[in-house]
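Researcher: Here's the sequence for the chain we discussed earlier.
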Amino acid sequence: MAHRVPDLGALELLLAVARLGSLGRAARELGISQPAASSRIRSLERQLGVGLVERSPRGSRLTDTGALVTDWARRIVDAAEAFDAGAQALRGRRDSRLRVAASMTIAEYLLPGWLIAFRGSHPGTAVSLHAGNSAVVAERLLDGEADLGFVEGLAVPPGLDGTVIGHDRLVLVTAPGHRWARRRTPLTPDELAGTPLVLRERGSGTRQVLDAALAGHGGPAVPLLELSSTTAVKAAVLSDAGPSVLSELAVGEELTARRLVEIPVAGVRLGRELRAVWPSGRRPAGPARDLLSLTGRPGAGPRSAG
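Model: Thanks. This is the structure I predict for it:
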């Protein structure tokens, strides 16, 4: 049907000729040249196989057939305008909200600054934030419950695409009264693996990195405590419940104030990438794209979950 129905531009020109009685005035109203308007009308007549406009020194008038076609054209153009208005309303509704899902470290220590900046440029957009571990972030994105996600871990979760927005380092920390705080030599990987720690739950990016780092040493020991938020883990370590491995972002203030002590570990890589993620094949758009632009990502292209 698409090749048999005239394009909207030609129909809008025909309606303008009917209203203004002049091909030249119709061309000026639509911002095209008179020769271009004449060519478009001729093409429309060839496509339909009928004459539509009679031209004379006194102006242009519709033929009887042209008047009939104009009635049909008006219905098509009105329907197209209604369609466009509806699409704009949908875009407006989409652009009036932003649903973000983020893993704990990013949600607590990075997103607040990004959202403050976002609010400055999008005061009318309602933002909701769901904080959970990386597995929960992936689940919400795949279920259509979030427009943009942020995770910490070793790779992009399956079913998602993403881009690196920063890097983070995990550090082993204890309260100042712990025996490790007086060590003069770094901990070995076997010592770390053999010691019960206060840890985040499985599925968190922090736990994924630690499990992978110690996989060659038997993996981490059974946790002393297993907690579902970075804040809870940090509070347990501050109360001297035991050591933990946490993001440097989360404990920077406590390390500076000496409320926590970093314990060096030899032979273990605890770095990780921070990523923005979204469902595969659907690049962020609207407010999600604008928030992503505020994260200071280093210009890397999207990385597939592959």
